[in-house]
Every structure is written in C-alpha cells, then in structure tokens.
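Technical annex, item 7. During the second reporting period the consortium partners agreed on a shared format for inverse folding records so that results from different sites could be compared directly. Each record opens with the tokenized structure and is followed by the designed sequence. A conforming record, contributed by the partner at site C, is shown below for reference.
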C-alpha cells in the first residue's frame, strides 16, 4: 500500500479518540449538565453537593493555611460548615490574613449558594400551588361554560315561545 496520494501528498492515518473520551471541553459538559438539571428541576442536589464540597474544601484549606486557628481538619471543616450559612458559630475564628480572606470567600459563596437553594425550594412550592390553582380555575371555567349554555338554551326557549328572535344587528 502506498504512503502517498496521487497528488504526491503523504497519507495521514486517521486518529480516533479513545473510547469514553470526549473532545468537548469539561466546561461545556458541565454547562450541558447544568442546563438539563435546571430544565428538569433537579438543581437542588447539585447545589447541595457543591455546598458540601465547598465546606469540605474550605475546611481543608483553612487547616492547611492556618494551623494555629484550625489545628485539625475537623476544626477546619466544622468552621466551614457553620460559616457557609451564617457568619460562623464563634468558637473558631480565623485571625491570620489568609484565614480572614478564606472566611470572606466562604461567607460570600455560602450565602449565595444557600440563597439559590431557598429560591429553588420556594419556586417548587409556587409551581405546586400554581398547578393547583390552574386545576381549580379549569373546573370553575367548565362549570361557568355549562351554566352559560343552560342559560342560552333557556333564553332560546323563551324567545321561541314569544315568537321573536334576538336583534343581532347592533
């Protein structure tokens, strides 16, 4: 088999991706998964998972960067867990510059994530209520339609007895 094409250029063998490896960047795959989660209303587990990972990561970073204020990993994780939803419990407080910077970041991200969690739960309640209201409204509309048809039939009967038809020209 020749290594050259008829025009003199070299043949280049086709290179295929290994099985299970996608050429799409990780960010694109994460974005797609986030869109699917939002569309199917499954965002809560993702945000809760991110919050748990953030608490664990922040706790470990706190211990690694500030041994004095966070002498154990458990202390760092405890501090991160109580700092994410609030501004901390107060039993462990970072006193170094890096500890305070980390604390500020944890508070900002924690409050943001918890705000999203609350918004999602609230929207689920609103949607459930909206569906209930729509069902009630549809039932009332059907009842109103039936009553109007009954009135229309009775009116037609009355007009038939009177021998007149309604004036529809105005």
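Designed sequence (site C submission):
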């Amino acid at each position: 088999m020749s290594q050259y094409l008829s025009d003199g250029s070299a043949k280049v063998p086709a290179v295929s991706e290994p099985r299970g490896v996608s050429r799409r960047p990780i960010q694109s795959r994460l974005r797609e998964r986030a869109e699917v989660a939002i569309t199917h209303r499954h965002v809560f587990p993702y945000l809760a998972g991110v919050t748990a990972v953030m608490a664990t990561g922040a706790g470990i970073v706190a211990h690694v960067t500030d041994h004095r204020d966070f002498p154990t990993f458990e202390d760092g994780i405890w501090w991160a867990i109580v700092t994410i939803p609030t501004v901390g419990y107060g039993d462990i407080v970072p006193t170094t510059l890096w500890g305070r910077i980390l604390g500020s970041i944890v508070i900002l991200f924690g409050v943001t994530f918890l705000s999203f969690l609350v918004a999602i739960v609230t929207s689920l309640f609103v949607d459930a209520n909206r569906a209930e209201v729509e069902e009630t409204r549809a039932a009332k509309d059907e009842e109103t339609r039936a009553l109007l048809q009954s009135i229309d039939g009775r009116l037609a009967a009355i007009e038939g007895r009177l021998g007149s038809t309604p004036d529809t020209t105005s």
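Residues 148 and 154 are 10 Å apart (CA to CA). The radius of gyration is 33 Å. All partners now use this format for quarterly exchanges.
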